[in-house]
């Protein structure tokens, strides 16, 4: 069975665009060449991967199931090539990220990065976006992942995430007056957005719990002690989302961006930046975590 890199790359391009012409633009091939590659891959697998329509294509059930396997094969190939082509990359990269993103994304990012650049030392800092940007400006960090309503320059937008009101699914905390809130410390965007939204509708509230990390916020929610504004991906097990029908105003979506000091270059910084971007591209932030109970 020939599952070459080119065939898998073309398959993922078609799966993402659902269009042979647009997929061809991504992989620098003509529409007919893309079609031939997909037919070849389907022949190798003895399975139909796409249903062809007049203007678009859709994945078959087998195609849907094959997508994650194809992605893993592509990643393994790319990481092997990177490791062999840059075996001597060394140095220190200073990366900053808000606590909730650090817990969710960084284990996978750091594991993959270490397999390609084992000689690079990564220094981590987990603080609010405001504090991290200040550290970047003072040359204490090389890369910063931060959230905001609108992206600031210079930066690269890497994701969009809904900010939601989370409460315990087995308590009636959201009915308490004044509303008990669990929030990060001053300087956190989510805290500011949540408080402003409640003040805009005249809803009484009190800061019941503050925590420097996401685990403290999640604990207060799960115990039924507070309601919290948080990123959708951080919603803990046993929690549910509060909506406008229950009197909770919609919160803005967060723009997740990657900031980098332009003068801090080098292969190590560039490589880690690429892994950060890829990790956020692969994991959707507009869906609740599978472990959560809605």
Order of strands in the sheet with the most strands?
Answer: 4-3-5-12-6
User: Termini separation (Å)?
Assistant: 42 Å
Largest sheet: 5 strands, mixed
- The chain-level mean pLDDT equals 87
Q: Looking at CATH, which topology of the largest domain would you report?
A: D-Maltodextrin-Binding Protein, domain 2
Low-confidence stretches: none
Considering the protein shown, what is the CATH homologous superfamily of the largest domain? Periplasmic binding protein-like II
Assembly category = single chain
CATH hierarchy: architecture of the largest domain: 3-Layer(aba) Sandwich
Helix content: 40-55%
Domain HTH lysR-type: 1-60
GO molecular function: DNA binding; DNA-binding transcription factor activity
Family: Belongs to the LysR transcriptional regulatory family.
Organism: Oceanidesulfovibrio indonesiensis
């Amino acid at each position: 069975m020939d599952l070459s890199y080119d065939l898998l790359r073309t398959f993922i391009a078609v799966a993402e665009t659902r269009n042979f012409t647009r997929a061809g633009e991504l992989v620098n091939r003509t529409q007919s060449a893309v079609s031939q590659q997909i037919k070849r891959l389907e022949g190798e697998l003895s399975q139909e991967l796409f249903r062809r329509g007049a203007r678009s294509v859709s994945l078959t059930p087998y195609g849907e199931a094959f997508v994650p396997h194809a992605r893993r094969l592509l990643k393994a190939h790319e990481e092997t090539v990177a490791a062999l082509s840059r075996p001597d990359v060394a140095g220190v990269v200073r990366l900053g990220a808000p606590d909730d993103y650090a817990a969710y994304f960084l284990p996978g990012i750091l594991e993959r990065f270490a397999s390609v650049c084992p000689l690079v030392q990564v220094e981590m800092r987990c603080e609010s976006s405001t504090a991290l940007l200040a550290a970047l400006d003072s040359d204490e960090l090389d890369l910063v992942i931060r959230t905001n309503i609108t992206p600031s320059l210079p930066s690269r937008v890497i994701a969009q995430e809904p900010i939601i009101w989370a409460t315990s699914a087995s308590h009636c905390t959201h009915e308490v007056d004044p509303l008990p809130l669990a929030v990060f410390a001053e300087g956190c965007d989510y805290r500011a957005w949540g408080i402003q939204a409640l003040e805009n509708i005249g809803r009484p509230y009190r800061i019941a719990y503050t925590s420097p990390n996401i685990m403290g916020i999640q604990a207060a929610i799960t115990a039924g002690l507070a309601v919290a504004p948080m990123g959708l991906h951080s919603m803990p097990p046993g929690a549910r989302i509060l909506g406008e029908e229950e009197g909770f105003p919609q919160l803005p979506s967060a723009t997740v961006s990657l900031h980098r000091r332009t003068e801090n270059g080098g292969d190590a910084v560039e490589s880690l930046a690429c892994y950060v971007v890829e990790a956020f591209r692969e994991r959707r932030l507009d869906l609740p975590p599978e472990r959560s109970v809605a």
